[in-house]
Specification:
The protein has a single domain (about 5-220), classed as TIM Barrel (Alpha-Beta Barrel). The chain has about 230 residues and is α/β, with parallel strands linked by helices. The radius of gyration is 16 Å and the shape is globular. Helices cover about 35% and strands about 20% of the residues. Helix 2 (about 50-55) links the parallel strand 2 (about 35-40) and strand 3. It binds D-xylitol-5-phosphate (DX5) and zinc ion. Zinc ion binds near residues 9, 180 and 200.
């Protein structure tokens, strides 16, 4: 049976009280804090940087999963590592040297992952599986919270699951498979059935008054899959 992890995205939280929002979702049963970094260049939106990551760090022991939607990538890696990130993922199209960027993340003491937009091929994984701790499949085009789940992302999740299982069967280790975008109570079971183990949810959790109720409903759906 797979371990399932729920990762609320702070993008939909109240930015005027982020520390409280972090504590509240973890108290409500979340496992990971998903931290969306957008640069108004690689994606049209502009969000938060290492200073904000550092500010929320004392509010939880849960892993902070930094999703870099930025170009270029490398200079921000040590800054986020220093700011307390546990996991750093980036989009392969945004890095000139994917292997080097992955190495930089690992050297900085963080777990590393690649993020795949709906139109990005999984072939970027071909030669770097040994440096990967997480594969993140986008089920929306990155840039904004609250978009609808793109159904064909499920095929890609299945394909990524197969790659990960083949690799870990041969070489050992653990690689998480995360899905980001439009994940809600009514589709989380389908996403898990396709092979995901880690679920980002922004508007589905922070858009509701009772975070605990949403997370419990998500876990109840996941229990049907396991
Ligand atoms: C989108 C971000 C997501 C976003 C998800 O570019 O990477 O993490 O916050 O938000 P929802 O769950 O509302 O689609
Ligand atoms: Zn994200």
């Amino acid at each position: 049976m797979r371990d399932f992890r729920i990762a609320p995205s702070l993008l939909s939280a109240d930015f005027a009280c982020l520390g409280q929002e972090v504590r509240d979702v973890i108290a409500a049963g979340a496992d990971i804090i998903h931290f969306d970094v957008m640069d108004n260049h690689y994606v049209p939106n502009l969000t938060v940087g290492p200073l904000v990551c550092e500010a929320i760090r004392p509010h939880t022991k849960a892993p902070i999963d930094v999703h870099l939607m930025v170009k270029p990538v490398d200079s921000l890696v040590p800054m986020f590592a220093k700011a307390g990130a546990d996991i750093i993922t980036f989009h392969p199209e945004a890095s000139e040297h994917i292997d080097r960027t992955l190495g930089l993340i690992k050297e900085s003491g963080c777990k590393a992952g690649l993020v795949f937009n709906p139109g990005t091929s999984l072939s970027y994984l071909d030669h770097v599986m040994d440096k990967i701790d997480m594969v993140l499949i986008m089920s929306v085009n990155p840039g904004f919270g609250g978009q609808s789940f793109i159904p064909h992302a499920l095929e890609k999740v299945r394909a990524a699951r197969q790659r990960i299982d083949e690799y870990t069967a041969k070489h050992g280790g653990e690689i998480w498979l995360e899905v980001d975008g439009g994940v809600k109570v009514d589709n989380i079971a389908a996403v898990a059935a396709a092979g995901a183990d880690t679920f980002v949810a922004g508007s589905a959790i922070y858009g509701q008054p009772d975070y605990q109720a949403v997370i419990a409903a998500m876990r109840a759906e996941l229990a049907k899959v396991a």
